[in-house]
Amino acid sequence: MSVIGECLVAFVFGSIVGLLVQRSRFCNTAALRDAMLFKTYRNTKPLLMGMMILTFGFTLFLTFGEGKAMHFDVGLNQVAGLFLFGIGMVLAGACTVSTWVKAGEGNVGAMWALLFTFIGMFLFSLLWSENFWPPASISMTGEPNLEALQLGFINARTLQDKFGVPAVIFGMVQVFLLGLIYRAIVKKEQAQLLEHDKAAAANKVELSEAA
Questions:
Q1: What is the pLDDT of residues 25-65, one digit of tens each?
Q2: Burial of residue 172 (number of CB atoms within 10 Å: 0-12, 13-18, 19+)
Q3: pTM, two decimal places
Q4: What are the extents of the domains in the chain?
Q5: How many Cα atoms within 13 Å fall on the side-chain side of residue 181?
Q6: Chain centroid to CA 34
Q7: Tens digit of pLDDT for each residue in 64-83?
Q8: Nearest CA to 88 among 120, 45, 46?
Q9: Smallest Cα–Cα separation from 103: which of 41, 31, 204, 22?
Q10: Which of 63, 107, 113, 123 can bridge 168 by disulfide, Cβ–Cβ 3.0-4.6 Å?
Q11: Distance between CA atoms of 156 and 53, rounded to whole angstroms?
């Protein structure tokens, strides 16, 4: 495919995804924040469903040699970085995807969040290029290095290579666990709906008696 063809495919695909995200108001931040703070799961359920589909599909590709997994060391640096990124998402009130959508809709706060996302990424690229962490080449080898707080490469492809177990097996285990969480959420929503109906019925009785 030519470069122009690839750009057209990317434009069409991006437009469709953008339209779906804009119309559904889906947000990764809301999926976690609303579930923990407000006990609502409107965004949580589609997030879990998407994770189950992608996990199974990607690990299936890995098993048959078609998947190209990224290899990067997992360690304390990832934990700290994800924690800071999570704080930034909560302060911005949206994840990166929904920030793009809100900025396109004219939300000034989202525009500022998007601007400083670019600035932060640019500054990080300069610091990483000029001040590469000296012990990185020694401690980040893909193998566990507890002294350097590194756990090595951790993904289904690594487990497949090390233990000979097909990556799709690990994917199915994760899908099963995510499915249990999804099922628990559905049950909790049903219980909340039942309580709401009981409360509404009780209020109706009280109003009828008062009349």
A1: 888 888 888 888 888 888 899 889 999 999 999 888 888 87
A2: middle
A3: 0.73
A4: 41-69+155-211
A5: 17
A6: 14
A7: 876 677 777 788 878 888 88
A8: 120
A9: 22
A10: 63
A11: 15
